[in-house]
Fold:
Amino acid sequence: MRCAILLLLNCLLASPTLGQTGPAGTPKFRVGLLGFGARAGIDFTGDDQVVFGSTLDLGDLYTDRLRMRASGELGIGADANTYVVGAELTYRFVADTMFSVPYVGGGLALYSQEECGDAVGCPALWPQFVLGFEINLRAPVRWVVEYHAQDGFSHHRLLLGLTTRRER
Structure:
């Protein structure tokens, strides 16, 4: 896990073109609140939890298809409520102008739960895997279907919701 963190930091911080512009003045690195989303779903790893989550679209790296985002999820039910806050990079396979936009990504998340001090392995830093797609509803609003695998694929969440993206 340390290697993944170091690799991510190296890619983000050590690039010689960070903050420079590309052809025709297009930014290679854009940061800001570019969109947000809200979603709900289930954790189907036997935890019997209903999950509510949100995302913040925080920027683009080199292209508008490689995006940085923050995410948060609240799992309610089972033995204890769970909390997951993460940072992710997602890659979109097609342009936002398409009807359906599939994407894949990953990142790191901080996991906690109620009475965390009494639980084994809590809090914890979990690797995350994201697989999803957006369907254009009406610009800039989109439906989103997303699968989150957390903690080395030991936790599985399926989420449905809405997301937005600010136009350039």
Notes: Confidence is low (pLDDT under 50) at residues 11-22. The first strand starts at residue 29 and ends at 43.
